[in-house]
């Protein structure tokens, strides 16, 4: 019994004794937790001033309390209570601040100010940034999906915003000690050459897409060949074509845009069309010529729109709406709604307005008493109105279904001295041919292009 009492006395401790034994360990544990808490609050701080009473910042450096020695200058701890924390921690290590870049995209029905706000950019900064950007682009008509690159520093403080202004051109609004300022950049570019050849299977346009030609390259190809070829009646499956063209490549992001077609050749069942791009040294004008120097550009284009299907010819026919036979004074072309309509030749717009059963209507006056008519349009291209001068191949409107029609199409007419004639039967001369010294220079140009082509053939 005496032994048991003695054992009880040895194991029992007064509250004071308990505090002496464990109090030091508890205080040490609390001090370490406090250090971790304060370091996390420092990372969350948006500006040095918010933690100035705790830490003195080294430039571009953040601190965490860890249990190993650092080879970088540690942040200094201040105030008496924090000195205790320093004595408990074995070391203070540092982590360099690194900029964070983030791509964000404009959503449907979202404004730029809203996009910046949802990415934790304070309203005052966002308003200034939007005001600066609005000097260089229309912030109210930005497309859905427009991309912006945001840059934050290691303390999550907003530093800059970048946006593309077009190919190889970008704008950046940056922060400095004075506020925000804008900088425009132009990326370096390189001219790239491409060679494509193939056999047409079905649609010429779709064949080109399958072989890697861009929509822009095919649009230009359609334009330069449309003076020579009726795409609906003359091109067949099995015909061969070759295209030698240039693109411009952005050296920074690798994107490319179409530049020009240097050479094009189309081998049809009964003929071969070969065209070279040539720029006149004196005037700077660019055109496409046959190997003998004859211009490919005729007085009027045979097809005044791209990738179209000829659905109705000139002559008498049963009207699809009225139900009786009458004269059809032009051609009908079927194509997707909104397809661009091109001016068939140089001239002056005589009328651009709604015109009865023709719906939205354009009439262009050309030289030699020739007029062209474009009807049932969805709308007009910007700036097209009566009295405006247009160039051959210029977009004047868009395919639609206005007026008295069953479906979308372009109704196209050619008039000579006020009377409608068959556009397919019109025989008009080329607009320009090379002669004399210009022809000699052109022959040398052909030799140079053929030498480039020999690398691919």
From TrEMBL:
Q: What class of enzyme is it?
A: hydrolase
Domain of life, per UniProt, equals Bacteria
Q: Which UniProt keywords apply?
A: Hydrolase, Metal-binding, Metalloprotease, Protease, Zinc
Which Pfam family, just one, is annotated for this protein?
A: Peptidase_M23
The cofactor named in the record is: Zn(2+)
Domain M23ase beta-sheet core, first and last residues per copy: 326-423
Q: Which residues form the signal peptide?
A: none
Q: Name one GO molecular function term.
A: hydrolase activity
EC annotation from Swiss-Prot or TrEMBL: 3.4.24.-
Q: Which CDD domains match?
A: M23_peptidase (cd12797)
Entry-linked PANTHER family: CELL DIVISION PROTEIN YTFB (PTHR21666:SF288), PEPTIDASE-RELATED (PTHR21666)
Q: List the protein's name.
A: M23 family metallopeptidase
Phylogenetic lineage: Bacteria, Pseudomonadati, Pseudomonadota, Gammaproteobacteria, Cellvibrionales
């Amino acid at each position: 019994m005496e032994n048991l009492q003695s054992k009880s006395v040895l194991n029992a401790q007064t509250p004071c004794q308990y505090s002496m034994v464990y109090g030091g360990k508890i205080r040490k544990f609390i001090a370490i937790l406090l250090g971790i808490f304060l370091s996390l609050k420092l990372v969350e701080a948006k500006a040095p001033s918010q933690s100035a009473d705790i830490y003195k910042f080294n430039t571009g450096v953040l601190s965490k309390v860890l249990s190993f020695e650092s080879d970088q200058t540690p942040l200094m701890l201040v105030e008496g209570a924090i000195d205790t924390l320093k004595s408990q921690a074995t070391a203070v290590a540092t982590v360099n601040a690194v900029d964070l870049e983030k791509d964000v995209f404009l959503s449907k029905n979202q404004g730029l100010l809203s996009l910046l706000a949802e990415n934790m950019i304070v309203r005052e900064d966002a308003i200034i940034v939007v005001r600066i950007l609005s000097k260089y682009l229309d912030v109210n008509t930005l497309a859905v999906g427009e991309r912006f690159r945001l840059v934050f520093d290691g303390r999550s403080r907003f530093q800059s915003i970048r946006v593309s202004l077009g190919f190889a051109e970008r704008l950046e609004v940056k922060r400095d000690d004075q506020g925000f300022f804008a900088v425009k950049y132009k990326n370096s570019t390189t001219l790239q050459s491409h060679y494509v050849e193939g056999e047409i299977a079905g649609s010429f346009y779709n064949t080109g897409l399958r072989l890697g030609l861009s929509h822009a390259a095919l649009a230009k190809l359609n334009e330069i060949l449309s003076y020579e070829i009726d795409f609906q009646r003359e091109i067949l499956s099995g015909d061969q074509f070759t295209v030698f063209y240039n693109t411009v490549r952005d050296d920074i992001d690798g994107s490319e845009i179409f530049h020009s077609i240097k050479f094009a050749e189309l081998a049809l069942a009964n003929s071969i069309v070969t065209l070279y791009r040539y720029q006149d040294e004196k005037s700077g004008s660019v055109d496409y010529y046959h190997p003998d120097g004859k211009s490919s550009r005729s007085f009027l284009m045979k097809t005044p729109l791209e990738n179209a299907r000829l659905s109705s010819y000139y002559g008498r026919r049963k009207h699809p709406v009225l139900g009786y036979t009458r004269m059809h004074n032009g051609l009908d072309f079927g194509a997707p709604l909104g397809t661009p309509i091109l001016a068939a030749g140089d001239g002056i717009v005589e009328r651009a307005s709604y015109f009865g059963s023709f719906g939205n209507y354009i009439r262009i006056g050309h030289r030699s008493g020739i007029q062209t008519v474009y009807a049932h349009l969805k709308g007009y291209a910007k700036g097209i109105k009566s009295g405006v001068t247009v160039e051959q191949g210029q977009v004047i409107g868009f395919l639609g279904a206005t007026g008295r029609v069953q479906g979308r199409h372009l109704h196209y007419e050619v008039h000579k001295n006020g009377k409608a004639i068959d556009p397919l039967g019109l025989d008009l001369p080329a607009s320009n041919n090379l002669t004399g010294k210009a022809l000699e220079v052109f022959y040398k140009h052909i030799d140079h292009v053929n030498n480039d082509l020999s690398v691919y053939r």
